UniProtKB/TrEMBL annotation:
Keywords: Membrane, Transmembrane, Transmembrane helix. This is DUF975 family protein. The keyword Transmembrane helix applies. The chain crosses the membrane at residues 20-41, 75-93, 122-141, 180-204. It comes from Blautia producta. The keyword Repeat does not apply. It comes from the Bacteria.
Length: 243
């Protein structure tokens, strides 16, 4: 079982060892995501209750006026920003093991994975859209369930849409409340980011949160692997047939 303090410690270590590339990647993510408004105005976790409340209720500026602007925003997200988001996930996953290059955030445009990244993220957000149409709370719960999709796409873009959602839901089963508390624990950093007009977000908050989220993914990925191996051993699945 993971603990917030340990995740944060490892996240700090990993972004500090490669500080400027990490800060550059998180700045790109912040600038790109700010342009679509909503939960992206302050860089952090996407589509969770803390971000929604903080950006929609406490921040006074809103740029989402008119159907045309909303449509342009959504098109930009689908074709550009979503691919960059997966690139950011790829950077922070790799940065755990080595000093990743900042250019990795744009890798989806050049490594032949563009369509897979775009399609995967579009389908995920379309699924979330229908959940939010039902009620806010089910939508928020599902957003936590799908939290690992960008990381799964970054590591294995050949997964089908159904496989991505299934694996993410498996990884987040029993973890949503703990992930919510992890988000809450960053609220003070969000306040500091606002008070410093975003400066703290550029140089610390953004890369810190992004690195911690990558640590969460890595921990849950390993827990799922261990559980899968244990289940396979019980039912007698040959190792060569395991995932």
């Amino acid at each position: 079982m993971w603990k917030r303090a340990e995740l944060k410690r490892r996240g700090r270590e990993n972004f500090r060892k490669n500080y400027w590339p990490a800060a550059a990647v998180s700045l790109v993510l912040a600038v790109m995501m700010t342009n679509i408004g909503g939960p992206y105005l302050i860089r952090g976790e996407k589509y969770n209750l803390v971000s929604i409340l903080w950006t929609d209720l406490l921040i006074p500026w809103k740029f989402q006026t008119g159907i045309g602007i909303v449509l342009i925003r959504d098109i930009l997200y689908i074709f550009i920003f979503a691919v960059i988001e997966v690139g950011g996930a790829a950077f922070y996953i790799r940065n755990r093991e080595e000093q990743a290059k900042a250019g990795l955030v744009f890798s989806g445009f050049f490594d032949g994975r563009y369509k897979k990244y775009m399609k995967g993220m579009f389908m995920m957000h379309l699924e979330l859209f229908f959940w939010y149409l039902m009620l806010l709370v089910p939508g928020i719960i599902k957003s936590y369930a799908f939290r690992m999709v960008p990381y799964l796409l970054a590591e294995d873009p050949d997964l089908t849409f159904a496989e991505m959602l299934h694996i993410s839901e498996e990884m987040m089963r029993g973890q949503k409340w703990k992930a919510f508390l992890l988000d809450v624990s960053f609220l003070g950093w969000r306040v500091l980011t606002t008070l410093t007009l975003g400066i703290a977000g550029i140089f610390f908050t953004g890369p810190y949160i992004d690195a911690v989220n990558a640590e969460l993914y890595a921990v849950l990925r390993e827990e799922r692997r261990v559980q899968y191996d244990a289940d396979s051993a019980v039912i007698g699945v040959h190792p060569a047939h395991r995932e």
